[in-house]
Amino acid sequence: MKNMHADSILKPGRNCLGISGVDSTGIIFDGRDYYRAFYECALRAERTIIISGWQFDSNVKLVRGADADGASATGFLDFLKSLCDKKPDLKVYILAWDYHLIFFMEREWTQNSTFSSAHERIFFRFDHRHAFAASQHQKFVVIDGHIAFAGGMDICDGRWDDRSHTADNPLRVDSGGRAYGAYHDLQSYHTGPVVAKLMELFKKSWKDSTGGEELTFPAMAGEDVFHGVEFGSPIHAKAVAISRTQARSLFRIKRPVREIRRLYTDAILSAKEFIYIENQYFTSYAIYRAIVRKMKSSQAGFQIVIVLPKKEGTLLERIHTGISQNRMLNSLKRVARRRRHRIGIYYPASVAKGGVEAPVYIHSKLMLIDEHFLTLGSANTTNRSMGLDTELNVSWEATGDGARAISRSLLNIRTELLTEHTGAHSQAEIKRLGKTKDLVAHLESVADRPSGKLRRLKAKRPNIL
């Protein structure tokens, strides 16, 4: 496996806060596996659990079906309460976005008191000290200073699903027992020195949001019970980078932080053969321009795959993103045709009873460049995530002595994602998805199959009414 990238993409101070060591790291696919991993790790917690998120629901079930066998408490808040009852030194800190009124009907109305009154060692805060009209969108967890999770997943209703994404799943219900559609998302896990960096970011956010309250976390004595732990698809890397978006505000910073925007554009412009993107939206003008520039400067045959939801989730999202997203996607297709490149834009779907299509909602925020670079986090490919909202991404790059092993890990992740989205079963088909050459042409043929899960996303002017 050749390394086509002579220069490093990751540059501390430009497109990342820094690069930190890891003992183990990798990707967790979808809500079932992430919630189960969080549940299992939290059971081992002794001193601290810290959680930062955009949204929480107190009653969301963390483990379901066979995964819940032997579990005494499966609801999120009940689980945290049971841990604190059993472990006298354990403290839980939860930092949530103090949401705008337009989200009022989607939130628990008395969440602050619900969490804060649950136990004397569960501390809940709303974060409202950010730039005007911005949101706290970072989604990460740290347990006992030894293991961390970061990515696109909140612990809330409507996120749990397994990797099959079937049209009908009796376990895929919210805390009120209402069924919802198939849902795809991604989270990362990390052990080692990078965990301390994430703890420092949480302490800073907590201090800013509370007007000066300093958190101190006790050092863990004894054996690290998370050492060497692996979930999902491991990445055989020794380092990971942290990148942020944070707008200038009166409360926190005087200069904006736009590391994630630079990260995306630098990585896209470094691509040699292939760009793979999964995201909830595609409306970032900076990312659009970078892809256009890449196609215009590349020889014929450059490949791009973009996986998005079939449609935006709400009327508000259609108004704010639908029109600009479709314009950008159509423009990318035109540039690709003129320059003789291949671009495939898709959504996955299952088939419900009666042959009705059941699209899988894409909520993941990932980009892969060749077999060299991967970034995953909370940032959507939108203008908001690139400049206004508070975001957090982690990234891996195939450099140094372990470059070949990292490249193999990244290729395996891409293959696993495409296997999930296409519904491939045979080893021959999965092996074909692992080859970059003519991959878009192959995916187009897969999308032509009436029984396939992968479907072409047709960009058109949305009917917002």
Set out the fold topology.
Layout: E1 18-21, E2 24-29, H1 30-43, E3 48-53, H2 76-86, E4 91-97, H3 111-116, E5 122-127, E6 140-143, E7 147-151, E8 183-184, E9 186-191, H4 194-210, E10 233-234, E11 239-246, E12 257-258, H5 259-270, E13 274-278, H6 285-297, E14 303-307, H7 315-339, E15 342-351, E16 357-359, E17 361-362, E18 366-369, E19 373-377, H8 383-387, E20 391-397, H9 403-422, H10 427-433, H11 439-447, E21 454-456
Helix pairs in contact: 5-6, 6-7, 9-10
Query: Mean pLDDT score, rounded?
Result: 92
Structural class: alpha+beta
Q: Name the CATH class of the largest domain.
A: Alpha Beta
What proportion of the residues is helical, as a percent range?
25-40%
Uncertain ranges: none
Inertia-based shape: globular
Rg estimate, integer Å? 21 Å
- Main beta-sheet strand count, sense and barrel state: 11 strands, mixed
Sheet-strand content, in percent, reads: 15-25%
Query: Could you say what the CATH architecture of the largest domain is?
Result: 2-Layer Sandwich
Total domain units: 2
Number of helices: 11
Total strands: 21
Separation, N- and C-terminal Cα atoms: 50 Å
Please identify which CATH superfamily of the largest domain we are dealing with: Endonuclease Chain A
CATH fold-level name of the largest domain: Endonuclease, Chain A
